[in-house]
Amino acid sequence: MCNGKEIKKRSKKPRKQNLNKEKTKGDPISTLGFGIVAYIGMLYYMIWAFTLYSLILLPTMMFYGDGKAYAGAEDQSKLGFATHTIGAMGYSSYQCLSIPREIGTLTLNCEFGVIGVVDHYGINPPNARDSCMDNDRNKLCKPDPVFADVFADATGKKKFSVAIEKSNLWPTTGVPSEPSCTDGEEFFYVQYTCIQKEGDLHTKYVQMATTVFLCCVIAYLFTISLRQLYQ
After folding, report:
1. For 42, which of 48, 57, 92, 140 is 20 to 30 Å away at the CA?
2. How far apart are CA 174 and CA 3, in angstroms?
3. Does one domain contain both 226 and 172?
């Protein structure tokens, strides 16, 4: 008490505790922070997970690598086709051929795979030789609809030849009225696909499904083992 007034003592502030340098060196969170530590931990987890999944899916990659679908591809490395990747579940590529109609015969060929669907075909006049699809410039030179039947037997074959003489192109309507369609400088074009055989695709799907099923079984058994171990 001082002059009738109560004197209050000032409360002491807690002193800051200095971190032990030895403890700090042994604790990455104290020096790097939680974010960096969690990021590094995630990187290690991804590395180990990718390595484990690669080992489990190794049989599938070996199966795919032994495939013969690209055996006919010339002047190209198999590495460029990524034959050992598990994501290669099939392929389809578009091919275009354009030759002078006077040659008389056109051969459809797939460097790998087999012939799938013929999407476009017809005659290109001299002023539109580079076209490989139906458009306004070559619609006057379109062959008769019955000519499409000659491509019916091409599906599933590695190579197929087509006669492109005038009598085959316009058997019902005769020669078209447009002179540039038959003046000797016209080009015959065809656009088609090369696809993988159904049997090869089925084999790939079965192999992948089997491997994924085994991976799920292994992961399930591993989880059960860990749960029983730490109970």
Report:
1. 57
2. 130
3. no
Ramachandran class of 223: left when φ > 0, alpha when ψ lies in -120 to 50, beta otherwise: alpha
- Considering the domain architecture, whether residues 119 and 209 belong to the same structural domain is answered as no
Number of structural domains the chain divides into: 2
pTM: 0.56
CB 166 within 8 A of CB 175: yes
Say whether both 121 and 154 belong to one domain.
yes
Residue 213 is part of which domain span?
A: 197-231
Which tens digit of pLDDT belongs to each residue from 134-179? 888 888 888 888 888 888 888 888 899 988 888 888 887 777 777 7
Residues 104 and 188 sit within 8 Å (Cβ to Cβ) = no
Angle between helices 34-56 and 198-229 (to 10 degrees): 130
Q: Give the per-residue SS3 of 60-120.
A: HHHHHHCCCCCCCCCCCCHHHHCCCCCCCCCCEEEEEEEEEHHHCEEEEECCCCEEEEEEE
Do 147 and 208 lie in one domain? The reply is no
Distance, in Å, from the CA atom of 86 to the CA atom of 102, rounded to the nearest integer, reads: 46
Question: Is 2 a domain residue?
Answer: no
